[in-house]
Design brief:
By secondary structure, the chain is mainly alpha-helical. It folds into 2 domains: 335 residues, no CATH class; 148 residues, no CATH class. 61% of the residues lie in helices and 4% in strands. The chain contains 29 helices and 6 strands. The strands form 2 sheets. Strands 3-4-6-5 form a 4-stranded mixed beta sheet, with helices on both faces. α11 packs antiparallel against α18. The longest helix has 26 residues. The N and C termini lie far apart (71 Å).
Amino acid sequence: MSKSSKIEILSQDRRFIFGLFAVEVVALALMRLPASLNFFGFAPFDAGNNLTAEYFVRHGYRAAIDFSYPYGLLGLLAGHVWFNLAGLTPWSYEVANWLMSLFIVWGLVRVVVALRAGLAGVLLFALTMPILVFTQYLTFSHALEAAFIIHALAAQAARNRSQALVWATLAVLAKPAMGLFYGLFLIGFVVLDMYRADELGWGSFVKVLAPASAVAVSGSLILAGVFGIRSLAATILPFSASREYGALHFGFMHAGESFWWPQQRISLGYYVQSVAGFYVLATLLLLAGALWACAFRIRSNLEVLVTCALLQVVFIAILWGNQFSWVYYSYLPVIGLAAALRMDRIWKYAILACALLMPAAKFTRLLIVHLEPATAVSGGGQHDGVTANLQAISQSSLSLSAWFDSKREPAMAGLWATPDQRAQWLKVLALVRGKPAAILETDGCVPLFYPAVFMPPVSLFLIAGLTLPSEVSRTLDQVNRADTLVFPTGLRLLRELPQLGARVNADFQPIFRGNDVIVFGRKSAMVPSGEPKSAPGTGHSAPIANGQKPGRYWLGSQAAS
């Protein structure tokens, strides 16, 4: 057997490819671990809201009725089952992400084999793995949606549209966004083929749609039984997300512009050193490849290529949010390019050259930068902040430096923190000690780590266009009862929620500002020097000494506010 034949066999060997990709993903997960579980990267940001969402479910709150929830209930159900099995901790969420990452890897293996992309396809995925699999997703819904759409593309590449529709349906139940459009495109391909074969009829059509319909009906019944019919009706379509997009001026040409066209210090180096250059070029190659294949009737992998191009257009034109939104569907242009590898040798070389432009060694802290939107919009220079964030992505490397720059801190829920972050947080705990304290975070789970220090959570999201009136009311009630307020995500929510901002500005003033956290004290509780009065014996807070572990947060012991 010739060497080229052996390589071709290996490029179709699912076990070999899975082992190769899995080793790479495990290495990425270990390198990113101190950043993924950094206290200020996890606790007050998106990843932490998974724990708070489960807290609300356990305390009888209804998704999208009693607390804001813009995703599908399947993700909430997955979190509920997992946290009951593995415990409600950051580590359990991290392990869940690792397992889901391996499921995504298996989907990528199915894709590359079904496309018969060969060694070039394996190399393309290996080079771009840092943005194909993130090893920690914002929510269970984001991870499940990515996994389901990738498996759907694998089924479509294997010419099994009926199975692809099942995966697309699951994607809608997890996150009603891209799966809706993907399902419509799949149905369009089915109808087109039936029309060409002169077999267009209800019998054939129902036969293709039957498995997906069964999944949709049975899945909806299960979710309605667990969370209620009103929650299902409020989350099955992306109405709440669309309100948020409008309120925050999201869109590729609006809040997302600073990703692909930063207005400050723009240069060729920006595109070479950040993911923006690869992403823009990969998208252009994908669209050009789809047009080329259609124009010259190149049938090899044509349907998957066109599908990825259409989905990428939908993402850019409709679903793009802010400057960090590219991470949600970063796999689409890569899988589309894998489908284009078989067109001819020139396209193969162009695609691999594009893959080499993606600085794979620059993404160790990618997730943490994505989880710091307040940094990008605080102050007056949005574009300055965005450019700084993207430079931070570019300057980080696939190294173990984060393991040496930070360490796990018992006083910070056992999560990683730099010395500066530890000093900031210990200062915060000293300021709130012995006084009624509330933490106002856009999302996150900090109160669950310190149930004896902070009032329990009363909202999942404090974001314009997404927050429910009941959440604002409960938050205002906490503000009225608190003597100190902590803002780990900056002051953006005070501008976005004017009723909350007016109350805080009228009754509170800042008493501590750090790089990652700001503390406000009630004006009436201030002594003339500006320091907060000591108020021992309030019955709400307990002191936490340096290095002492925070209280355990088994949620059954905490009463909902």
